Amino acid sequence: MKTLAQLTYIPLYSDHPKEQVQDLIEFVAQHDVEVDVNYLSTSIKGETDVVFDLIRDVYDTMTIEGQKFRFHVELLSPTKD
Q1: Which pLDDT does position 7 carry in this prediction?
Q2: The pTM of the whole model exceeds 0.85
Q3: Domain encompassing residue 54
């Protein structure tokens, strides 16, 4: 099964928010998921376990780096393709 997730990452209190978002997109692209970058969010599609692991990795990475952020995740029901 494949899961589609829409991720919206909003850096808070940052002098360089665009760079932080770009870093996040590059981090996501290193994983085994399809990535579609939009103006306000990034959609990822992949095996359900991979998608959930990636969401956790993004959250943990941003937390470890001490960044203040908002991270919105929307999940669609799994598909067979």
Answers
A1: 96
A2: yes
A3: 2-75
Residues ≥6 apart with Cβ < 8 Å to 34: 44, 45, 46
| Cβ neighbour number for residue 33 with a 10 Å cutoff | 20
User: Residue 81: its pLDDT value, please?
Assistant: 76
CATH code (residue 35): 3.30.70.930
Query: Hey, what amino acid is at 33?
Result: V
Residue 59 falls inside a structural domain: yes
Lookup: tokens for 14: 């940052």
Average pLDDT per block of 10 residues along the chain, 81 residues long: 94 88 92 93 95 95 86 92 76
Q: How many domains does the chain have?
A: 1
Whether 81 is covered by a domain: the verdict is: no
E strand or H helix that includes residue 36: strand 34-37
